[in-house]
Each structure stands twice: as structure tokens, then as C-alpha cells.
Amino acid sequence: MLGLALPLHHTTTLCVELYACRLGLQAISLLGMSKVIVETDSIYLHHLLTSNECEIPTTIATIIRDIKFLLAQIGEYKLQWNYRETNFVADGFANYASYQASNQQWIVNPQAHRPELPDQLTFYLLCVLFGG
């Protein structure tokens, strides 16, 4: 399980969900995982990724293509939708990130709470955080 909090500027909740999904799948790809369960509490995101009959808004078409491409690279995966009320882990991460973000030093000096992450993942996440 990977949890990550990043400062995102003005955007929609759907874009945040898409960004988080793509970031997680990129991390999975870097780690070479082949059996993955992707959970979301956004029924619209789940529908966008699982339905071939859904019209995708042009503003998010590129990131949807990226996510579908990354999913195709995984050997075995399951996309699972959960009721928002059952998503305690994501809620815990969000509350912790909100608490940490209330201090502006968090953005300037992020802390890795699990320094035993593989080097390639740590490097990738630092690049994402600092726009590299």
C-alpha cells in the first residue's frame, strides 16, 4: 500500500482522483508488480475506466488514456469501486495530509515517513513532488 500527499493547485475532485490513480499506477509499474487491485470511491472514475461506451470529456482524455495504458502493462488487475464511507484508509491519509498541509513547512520540506522505499520509487516521487 502506498499513500502520498502532494500539494495540488486549483483543480476538480475528478482531476485529483485521476492524478492519484495515474501516480499510483506509475509507482506500480516502477516496482514491477503484476497482480494489483485498484480501489476508488469515485463511481464516475470507475465508470470512465471500465466502460467502453462512456463518453470521455476532452479535458481528461489524455490522463484516461495514460491510466488505461498503464493498466494494460500490468499482468493481472482488478478495478474496484467502494462506497466512500468504507474508504477509511484513504480518509485517514487525507486527514493526515490536511493536518500536515496546515503548516507551510510541509510543502517546502516534505518528510518521507517510510525511508525504506525502493530507490527508483523514491527518486520518481521526488521528481513528481518537485516537478522534475
From TrEMBL:
User: SUPFAM superfamilies in the record, alphabetically?
Assistant: Ribonuclease H-like
User: What sequence ranges are listed for the domain RNase H type-1?
Assistant: 9-97
Q: Which residues cross the membrane?
A: none
| GO molecular function terms attached to this record | nucleic acid binding; RNA-DNA hybrid ribonuclease activity
Checking InterPro entries in the record gives: RNase_H-like, RNase_H-like_dom_plant, RNaseH-like_sf, RNaseH_domain, RNaseH_sf
Q: What is this protein called?
A: RNase H type-1 domain-containing protein
Give the species.
Coptis chinensis
